[in-house]
Design goal:
14 strands; six-stranded parallel sheet; elongated; binds uridine-5'-diphosphate-glucuronic acid; alpha/beta; 13% strand
Length: 453
């Protein structure tokens, strides 16, 4: 099939590369000329494991353009533009609007399915429909009836394992009111649904994976699935973090509690890792959007609101824990291990490290932060945070009054903890992800504290 994707951010580029790998003729369109030029030269705009390798395999099926001409030939056009939060928390839809208009202007005479893959407010499908229709009718001077349909196809990719999640999803959700659009999307996804493609050597097919279910829904239901899924995942994390606070009070160990409840299959073990809580570009934005959508219908969403409150309080709890240890933060040096909002990505959007760093700087501490991958981005995008970004974990630890493990990068498990302890002014480490081998650190001379233990 011929497909086009508008927007080469995380979702657009990883999905485009995956579709091209599966054999679809894929065109990625972005108005950012520099980004498109770099992609043509094979340079990836962000760090994502295996993206470069799969890009190389898929290259014969991939094209990159800044113009919308390729939309004319496409059977399916995906809108994968950014919807960044505005100051009031609602998503900025200006890129979505211009993409929809440009699609309408350039669409050919054949039947086209226009798919929203960006996370957009519920009801956006109808809005995009009207924008595409108006633009198509004014470009062609004729009616648009039957020439296109709008669909919603939410993505569930996690940064850091986006290609794995694209090839081996738990399910594919497609929402459309036109059955023809569902048929087209079924054909597009067939290699994934039936797992008929040859798995790349670097991303082998999970042994337990069978056929992937396709959930076909109406437009609004698919849009709501995305928000409800992200809110539920963030809720699980906030729930375990709330229980972790109680665990600390009563002398329980949250890791044991999480295992004890998670093995109940109705609950499940995933997303019960207590610690500093969630960050990133999705959970904060989507829970906030869910609350504002509810408000438009005079509906309060107290569970989602509480989930956010618990999450952002975890960051302040790190500061409180350091105060408890050091009594005074003014003039202290604090090292942070990890800046990215999670391991295996260089994304620092809503990263807990930057928030915690800013709170500590505000209280007069000097903060040094290290990250194995995100340093370049942090220096470029968070230069005014007051946090100093350093090249090695040793530099974050040297002379520090405390170290905080913020991101659970596997590299940090392997540090030479004895020299870390010796180099610190006060060898105290707060493990914000309950991730490090406590006994080993204590043996190396560190006083070790975790969250919820
Ligand atoms: C999330 C969802 O997991 C994806 O399904 C969804 O497609 C994506 O948002 C999106 O909407 O685009 P992502 O934000 O990339 O993916 O990363 P997650 O792996 O979900 O982690 C989010 C945050 O939760 C991270 O800060 C992570 O450290 C934290 N987390 C995760 C915990 O604190 N505890 C856990 O048990 C799991």
């Amino acid at each position: 099939m011929h497909i086009a994707l508008i927007g080469t951010g995380y979702v657009g580029l990883t999905s485009g590369v995956a579709f091209a790998f599966l054999g679809h003729r894929t065109t990625c369109i972005d108005t950012n000329t520099a980004r498109i030029d770099r992609l043509k030269d094979g340079a990836m705009p962000f760090f994502e494991p295996w993206l470069k390798e799969m890009f190389t395999l898929a290259r014969p099926n991939l094209q990159f353009f800044t113009s919308y001409e390729a939309v004319r030939e496409a059977d399916v056009v995906f809108i994968t533009v950014g919807t960044p939060p505005l100051p009031d928390g609602s998503p900025d839809l200006k890129y979505l609007c211009s993409a929809a208009r440009a699609i309408g202007t350039h669409m050919g005479s054949g039947y086209t399915v226009v798919v929203n893959k960006s996370t957009v407010p519920i009801g956006s499908g109808n809005w995009v429909d009207s924008l595409v229709r108006e633009a198509f009718e004014s470009a062609t001077g004729g009616p648009s009836n039957g020439s296109f349909a709008i669909a919603s196809n939410p993505e569930f990719l996690r940064e850091g394992s986006a290609l794995h999640d694209s090839l081996y999803p738990d399910r594919v959700v497609v929402g459309a009111d036109d059955p023809r659009a569902l048929d087209v999307l079924y054909t597009l996804y067939r290699p994934i649904l039936e797992q008929t493609f040859a798995a790349p050597s670097f991303l082998p097919r999970p042994e337990t994976l069978g056929a992937v279910p396709l959930i076909a829904t109406g437009l609004q239901s698919a849009e709501l699935v995305k928000y409800a899924a992200n809110a539920f995942l963030s809720l699980k994390i906030s729930y375990i973090n709330e229980i972790a606070q109680l665990a600390e009070k009563v002398g329980a160990d949250i890791a044991q509690v999480a295992k004890g409840i998670g093995l109940d299959r109705r609950i499940g073990t995933q997303f019960l890792q207590a610690g500093i809580g969630w960050g990133g570009s999705c959970f904060g934005k989507d829970t906030s959007a869910l609350i504002s959508t509810g408000a438009e219908y005079s509906l309060e969403m107290p569970i989602v609101a509480a989930c956010r409150q618990v999450n952002y309080r975890q960051r302040e709890r790190v500061v409180e824990r350091l105060l408890q240890e050091l009594k005074i933060l003014k003039g202290r040096t604090i090292g942070l291990l990890g800046v990215a909002f999670k391991p295996n990505t260089d994304d620092i959007r809503d990263a807990p490290a930057l928030d915690i760093g800013a709170r500590l700087v505000q209280r007069g501490a000097s903060v040094r932060a290290h990250d194995p991958i995100a340093l370049q981005r942090a220096r470029a995008e968070a230069a005014d945070s007051g946090v100093q970004f350093v090249d090695t974990p040793a530099l974050a630890a040297c002379g520090a009054d405390a170290l905080v493990l913020v991101t659970d990068w596997p590299d940090y498990r392997e540090l030479d903890w004895r020299s870390v302890a010796l180099s610190m002014r006060n060898p105290f480490l707060l493990d914000g992800r309950n991730f490090l081998p406590a006994a080993q650190l204590e043996e190396a001379g560190l006083r070790y504290a975790a969250m919820g233990r």
